[in-house]
Write a structure and sequence with these properties.
By secondary structure, this protein is mainly beta. Helices cover 5% and strands 41% of the residues. It starts with a strand and ends in a 15-residue tail after the last helix.
Length: 182
């Protein structure tokens, strides 16, 4: 397993070793001691799975009451995955990192607490799986607008398929300090 820092060093790309032969492939996606050695020490307590069609954009979401670190991967298809630093005292506040995750490249992304997360589906469909370090709490759910001009994410499409909830999320500059992580 290779742990590759991104330009936001807390966000880490994980490239597993993949063993392939005529039957298919095998890869180890999580091994506690290797993650700990790479500085990822949050225990994961919840797994989620979602399926989406081409041009769907989910996000940018985060939890304020039960902050969650996430380990994300694609089990079919291809997505553009995005993590935005929204820690109010961070020197990287409002900066983002993005990478393509796919069934083909089998890479994963570790997103620590204090980051908003979203993804855009590049393939006809994608199945997305992620581990969370804390339980989902509907009362603590928050989000940032996907098209916030101050963040200026380079999404592949200016007219994505969005949920009604995601269409109504606020811009980062409109979110009060009480709703931003430290």
């Amino acid at each position: 397993m290779e742990f590759i820092p991104t330009r936001l060093e807390e966000v880490i790309i994980i490239r597993p070793r993949v063993f392939e032969d005529k039957r298919g492939f095998f890869t180890e996606t999580f091994r506690l001691n290797k993650y700990n050695q790479a500085g990822i020490r949050k225990p994961f307590v919840q797994d989620n799975l979602s399926g989406s069609v081409r041009n769907t954009l989910r996000g940018l979401h985060y939890q304020i009451l039960n902050p969650q670190a996430k380990l994300v991967m694609v089990t079919s298809g291809e997505i553009l995955d995005v993590a935005v630093d929204i820690r109010r005292n961070s020197p990287n506040f409002g900066k983002y990192v993005s990478c393509v995750l796919s069934y083909k490249n089998r890479e994963m992304l570790y997103i620590p607490e204090g980051f908003a997360h979203g993804f855009f589906v590049l393939s006809e469909q994608a199945t997305f799986m992620y581990k969370c370090s804390d339980y989902y709490n509907p009362a603590g759910e928050r989000g940032v607008r996907w098209d916030d001009p101050d963040i200026n994410i380079d999404w592949p499409d200016a007219d994505p398929v969005l949920s009604e909830k995601d269409q109504k999320l606020p811009f980062l500059s409109d979110i009060g300090e009480q709703d931003l992580p430290e």
